[in-house]
């Protein structure tokens, strides 16, 4: 992520947060992580599927191939070696091919992992610690292609979960178009507009309680 964002991008994001917060009492915390889980179980799943496919192919060869060229496969060590090699290849492919990893993990696992990591970030960054309970976490997990917006009690009293849909979509469009910083900056501005229109009003004695900088896990 650090390689994707220049110093200018980081400053644009910081300024977008500062500008949005000038119009509302909300405290916006953008947070980006490469991934929310190691998904070790997914790698093992890929290895198991590949090994099972290799054994299925071996069984088909035993049934239909009558030549002498694959005699080694009829030995115990030959079958075991093929299954082991296939399992290692499946594990490597799953580990280094994110689309395959996401497919094997499934939507429920991805959603659960991202939500758990977002909640951890909410606590670590003390988004809950504002005077009016008006913190907002914009959490982006890149590997999973998942985005969560978590508001504190003062925000949730004014803004429904459905109200964040356009903001999430704007970030997703930016990632897909290779313009992540632009998408995040625009989403932060939209967040400020939403909070302002939802009457999360700025107080005369409001202070900047949380840093405006992008957090990267």
General description of the model:
The chain is 57% helix and 10% strand. It is of the alpha/beta class and 217 residues long. The protein has two domains: 7-37 and 106-216, Diaminopimelate Epimerase, Chain A, domain 1 (Roll), CATH 3.10.310.50; 40-101. It has a four-stranded mixed β-sheet, with helices on both faces. Strand 2 (135-141) and strand 3 (146-151) form a beta hairpin. The protein is elongated, with a radius of gyration of 24 Å.
Can you lay out the helices and strands and say which pair or pack?
Layout: H1 7-22, E1 27-33, H2 40-64, H3 76-96, H4 98-124, E2 135-141, E3 146-151, H5 153-156, H6 165-176, H7 180-197, E4 215-216
Parallel strand pairs: 1-2, 1-4
Antiparallel strand pairs: 2-3
Helix pairs in contact: 1-7, 2-3, 3-4, 6-7
Concise synopsis of the structure shown:
The chain is 57% helix and 10% strand.
Strand content: 5-15%
Main sheet attributes: strand count, strand direction, barrel closure: 4 strands, mixed
Count up the domains.
Answer: 2
Net shape: elongated
Low-confidence stretches: none
In what order do the strands lie side by side in the largest sheet? 3-2-1-4
Q: Give the mean pLDDT.
A: 90
CATH architecture assignment of the largest domain: Roll
| Cα Rg | 24 Å
Task: Spell the H/E element sequence.
Answer: HEHHHEEHHHE
Helix content: 55-70%
Helix and strand composition category = alpha/beta
Query: How many angstroms does the end-to-end distance come to?
Result: 9 Å
User: Regarding CATH, which class of the largest domain?
Assistant: Alpha Beta
Enter the CATH topology name of the largest domain.
Answer: Diaminopimelate Epimerase, Chain A, domain 1
**Topology, number of strands:** 4
Count of helical segments? 7
């Amino acid at each position: 992520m650090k390689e994707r964002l220049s110093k200018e991008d980081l400053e644009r994001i910081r300024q977008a947060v500062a500008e949005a917060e000038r119009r509302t009492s909300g405290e916006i915390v953008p947070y980006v992580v490469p991934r929310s889980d190691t998904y070790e179980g997914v790698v093992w799943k890929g290895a198991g599927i590949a090994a099972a496919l290799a054994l299925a192919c071996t069984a088909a060869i035993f049934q239909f191939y009558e030549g002498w060229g694959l005699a080694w496969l009829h030995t115990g060590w030959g079958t075991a070696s093929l299954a082991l090699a296939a399992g290692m290849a499946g594990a490597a492919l799953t580990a280094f091919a994110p689309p395959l990893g996401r497919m094997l993990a499934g939507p429920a696992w991805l959603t659960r992992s991202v939500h758990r990591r977002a909640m951890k970030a909410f606590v670590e960054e003390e988004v809950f610690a504002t005077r009016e309970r008006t913190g907002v976490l914009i959490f982006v997990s890149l590997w999973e292609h998942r985005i969560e917006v978590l508001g504190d009690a003062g925000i949730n009293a004014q803004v429904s979960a459905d109200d964040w849909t356009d903001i999430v979509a704007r970030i997703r469009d930016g990632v897909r178009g290779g313009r992540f910083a632009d998408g995040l900056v625009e989403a932060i501005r939209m967040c400020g507009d939403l909070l302002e229109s939802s009457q999360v009003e700025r107080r005369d004695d409001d202070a900047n309680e949380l840093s405006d900088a992008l957090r990267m896990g």
